[in-house]
Design a protein that fits this description.
Layout (H helix, E strand, L loop, with lengths): L1 H12 L11 H50 L5 E8 L2 E14 L20 E7 L6 E2 L4 E7 L23 H4 L3 E3 L18 E7 L14 E4 L24 H9 L16 H6 L6 E6 L2 E6 H7 L38 H12 L19 E5 L6 E3 L3
Parallel strand pairs: 3-8, 7-9
Antiparallel strand pairs: 1-2, 1-7, 2-3, 2-4, 5-6, 5-10, 8-9, 10-11, 11-12
Length: 393
């Protein structure tokens, strides 16, 4: 018996008939091919699932941020707002409270005071500061929000000299007279130069104190305090006298500046900026001139870029804004025309953006709007419920 067992064991080891054999090369290739196919299908499903999840997260963050700003107004004796900022390639929504008011002086992109139009008064602007009782809300990477500026609200140097979205590279004056979907241009400036603060613009949704109702009867631009993290320009007057970057509480800082007669002298010349205006007005690099809106568009930046004829987005900003080549952050709000096979005029670029969000295909060679890439969602804010309501294009 022992010899018979030994023989059977030897036969199995030598691969003789009746023994188990392995897979052939052909069988292995078939199995590998099936696995690769299944992995490809799974990868596509995972990508689709991730895209859907990010889209839902962007929508959720936007709704929560609007709700947080409204709740802030309900609990306060001051109006509140949801302000949109762009920094480091991401959109954030900042709930903020009104903390003061200043008689401002419109300024040029160079920081010099504007010449007021005949009969034009210096604007009185509310000042808002981020709330310490709530946090900012950051959208997923690649998602952006634009606000709708109705005709006549932006600066055009003819009938409206307020400085809103006043960068010629991004918004030509004739285009400014129309209705436009504008981007939060809050980081396209030189943070080391106090003279470039007026390049910062954004939009916000405003809610009434105590009621939380959407404010519709106050179209005036306001100022949001968004302190620059630098000391480069703070060694000169008036920034060295009052250091907002060292303030423990922004509302208190605003009260101190506005209550200081040396910083806010009465009756200054209409062509001279007061120290208070340099610290808190549109000229300040620590403030953002903000436009009130009631309509918002949520979208993927790569979809917008593709649909208006761009090859891709700018590498440095992740948007259609940027310096040609994408090596650095632009020091003014400018569209990266190198993204396009043929650089279009700035006015045509803005019109393509408007058409894409409005879902109006132009069908012409100069504005090849591709609505097959359309994935923007347009929202309006309800008057009393103050909630986002998606509208049909």
């Amino acid at each position: 018996m022992r010899n018979a067992d030994t023989q059977r064991w030897s036969a199995k080891m030598l691969g003789m008939p009746g023994t188990r054999r392995g897979f052939t090369i052909a069988e292995l290739l078939v199995v590998i091919s099936i696995l690769v196919l299944l992995l490809g299908v799974a990868a596509g499903s995972i990508r689709s699932l991730l895209a859907s999840s990010e889209r839902s997260l962007a929508d959720q963050q936007l709704r929560i941020a609007i709700g947080a700003a409204r709740d802030l107004a309900l609990r306060s004796n001051s109006d509140a707002g949801a302000f949109f900022l762009f920094s480091n390639g991401r959109i954030s929504v900042v709930p903020a409270l009104q903390v003061g008011q200043i008689e401002d002086l419109p300024v040029l992109p160079t920081g010099s005071p504007r010449t007021l139009l005949a009969g034009q008064r210096r604007p009185v602007r509310d000042i808002f500061a981020p709330s310490y009782t709530t946090t900012s809300f950051v959208l997923p990477a690649g998602y952006s929000v634009r606000g709708y500026a109705a005709p006549g609200l932006l600066n055009n140097d003819v009938t409206n000299n307020n400085g809103l979205y006043d960068a010629p590279d991004a918004m030509p004056q004739d285009q400014a007279e129309e209705g436009n979907w504008v981007f939060p241009e809050t980081s396209f400036f030189d943070p080391t130069d106090a003279g470039t603060g007026s390049l910062r613009h954004t939009f916000f949704v405003r809610f009434e104190a105590r009621t939380g109702n959407l404010v519709l009867n106050n179209p005036r631009a306001v100022l949001l305090l968004d302190v620059v993290n630098t000391t480069e320009f703070r060694g000169t007057t008036p920034y060295s006298d009052r250091r907002i970057d060292e303030a423990d509480e922004l509302a208190g800082f605003v009260a101190l500046v506005l209550g200081d007669a040396t910083l806010n002298p009465p009756g200054p010349p209409a062509t001279t900026l007061t120290p208070a205006q340099r610290l808190l007005g549109d000229a300040s690099p620590d403030t953002v001139l903000s436009l009130p809106v009631t309509e918002l568009a949520l979208y993927r930046e790569v979809s917008l870029a593709s649909s208006i004829g761009a090859r891709s987005v700018n590498r440095a900003t992740g948007t259609v804004y940027g310096v040609a080549g994408g090596a650095s952050q632009p020091l003014e709000p400018q569209l990266d025309t190198s993204l396009f096979p043929t650089p279009p005029p700035a006015g045509a670029m803005q019109q393509r953006i408007n058409d894409w969000i409005n879902v109006r295909a132009s069908g012409t060679a100069d504005a090849p709007t591709n609505n097959s890439q359309f994935d923007a969602r347009v929202f309006s804010v309800a008057r009393y419920l103050s909630q986002l309501q998606e509208v049909s294009p």
